[in-house]
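ok so i was messing around last nite and threw this chain in just to see what happens. nothing serious, just curious
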Amino acid sequence: MAGYMLLYKRYVKKYSDAIEYTRQYLEKTAAMNPSGLHPWNLPEHRMNHTLLVLKYSFLLAKNRKVNLDVIALSAILHDIATFSSGRKEHAEEGAKVAEEYLRKHDYPDNLVHEVVHSIRAHVGPLAFRPRSDEAKILQDADTFDKVGALGVTTFLLHCGNKKMLPEQALAELKKEMPRRLKWCYRTMNFPQGKRMIGEGCNYAREFIRRLENEAHILEP
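result:
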């Protein structure tokens, strides 16, 4: 098993209480989100995203001199305020919720400060400049499942919820995905992140090309 997966399993066990707290908080606050059509608005989907970010964070943290406790807790708590605040405010509000949780459970001040900073900065370097490698790792890890197979799948689920036909979904993909891919690549902090995003971009472009070719069959 890859080294980062061993770290992932170890810290999932170590911080199982924080994971369960996040899961319950998302479920409790999901009803506060007025737009329920997008898959991102399901608490189960957001929790899956959280665990993927945790996994990707350890992939990036491997062989780096970083605080793995900060890495783990930042990833677990980074999107906790998704439903209890507006999209643009969720990082700031999430940092507050995370700080309250960590202080309630007597985590040391230096760890709390670093986790809070990482969560506040995770929306991306174009919005908030990270001051630590831990914060940069969270930024990059948070972007990974927005591209590649998972990113395309989520986008198409959203199109399906809007009752789009395949050719309509293709038009939306062609309009939105290139812009998103460019933004994702541009905001990566680490070369490894850029390589991974590049692979995801290639997958998405190839998917669009193949779907476009097959969609011609539907034309009258």
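not much to say yet. The mean pLDDT is 87.
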